């Protein structure tokens, strides 16, 4: 089984709909992240969480919210989806080796907002 | 603004040759540096990280770091068609988050 899973893998939704993307991990990592990837713009951080009670905004958090339900689960919500939120969304977890935090990515969710 | 810059490519390299990928970053205080490989439509996969000046080798891959000049590079020796992918450089600017470059698309020509 994959260490970091994301559901759904693909989703098409309409403008104005609320949608939730879910991420689960079996790595036992405390740190979890949500990114979006757009062609030519690379990976951009939406939200991150260092533990269940610690949630932080990333560089592009407007229009998104998150919930850290447990150490292993981190969900991303689009309260009212808009077409420019069409992108590939990745969840990641992070482990510490000394002072190095290596991030491991889930398989991604391709979201299309029409 | 902390930034990570990469040439978007595409970079074409003959099979068996050395592929050289470069990345520059904006903050001299940066602590650790990562190279990820991403195949089209797939998630980024960590290849290696480096945090000390100099070279770090892992199989056919060598990461090189020069903090004074603020660049990090990835060399791929004996390039194979399976190395064709987009390579993402990421930098930890000291806040436990990674800032990613936009990636360099590498194509290995058989």
Characterize the structure shown.
Chain A is mostly beta strands and 114 residues long. Chain A has strands spanning 4-7, 10-13, 19-25, 31-38, 42-51, 54-57, 64-70, 73-78, 87-97, 100-105, 109-113. In chain A, strands 2, 4, 5, 6, 9, 10 and 11 form a seven-stranded mixed β-sheet that branches. A four-stranded antiparallel β-sheet of chain A has the order 1-3-8-7, with no helix packed on it. The termini of chain A are far apart. The mean pLDDT of chain A is 93. With 110 residues, chain B is mostly beta strands. Chain B contains no helices and eleven strands. Chain B has strands spanning 4-6, 11-14, 19-25, 32-38, 45-50, 54-58, 61-66, 71-76, 85-92, 98-100, 104-109. In chain B, the strands form two sheets. In chain B, strands 2, 4, 5, 9, 10 and 11 form a six-stranded mixed β-sheet that branches. In chain B, strand 9 and strand 10 form a beta hairpin. In chain B, 38% of the residues are buried. Classes of the chains: A mainly beta (114), B mainly beta (110).
Please tag this protein with its features.
heterodimer; A: 114 residues; 7-stranded mixed β-sheet; 0% helix; B: 6-stranded mixed β-sheet; 5-stranded antiparallel β-sheet; 11 strands
